[in-house]
Amino acid sequence: MRILVANVNTTQSMTDSIAAQARAAAAPGTEIVGITPRFGADSCEGNFESYLAAIAVMDAVVNYPEPFDAVIQAGYGEHGREGLQELLDVPVVDITEAAASTAMFLGHKYSVVTTLDRAVPLIEDRLKLAGLEARCASVRASGMAVLELEEHPDRAVEAIVGQAEQAVLQDRAEVIVLGCGGMAGLDEQIRQRAGVPVVDGVAAAVTIAESLVRLGLSTSKVRTYATPRPKTVIGWPITAPQPTAERSAEAAR
């Protein structure tokens, strides 16, 4: 089984960290391939960067040259998961939804701890769109920018733990969700300090993607996520999608 893990920004070191976390969660026999968009922002912390990332991730995934069995979109918030679901015939798992849905198995309510405050409304909207907001106690900002998570990991842990503790005490959260792909690998440290289950979205997404592949399940194509209708598109940076089954057949020849 091969799973593509798509970083939503262009920082290669973050792709490497995300892929490492994904490999740690993957079952034996699962190959994790981290991919970095060829264009876009070095971090995604607002609407413009998020919409740009959606195009960049679709470009990177559609142009990946080898067959694959599932895709993980490793950005927390709105990064165009639905577009990938239309383009592909394999499962597409977004870490926002994977983390929140996993958290609901572990406690009555969960809180998300993310990066900057400007990201909070984007995450709240994404959870509402996914039907996951009813069990969300709060979305809290750590005050750390995305790139600062790598530059100052000790400060990042302290900032996240501080907000996690407040979420448990003030918001009555019973589970903490890490609200950024750049927080991959920090879950154990925060769990020890906060005293509640902590869900890393990348790890959760890997296990969900593996399960879907093993069950032989993928996105329904009968309506909402049907393959895009053939049209003339001018200036679009990605090539026309080729169904995964055709790519697999070509690779086998």
Automatic annotation (TrEMBL):
InterPro entries: Asp/Glu/hydantoin_racemase, Hydantoin_racemase-like
Listed name of the protein: Asp/Glu/hydantoin racemase
Organism: Paenarthrobacter aromaticivorans
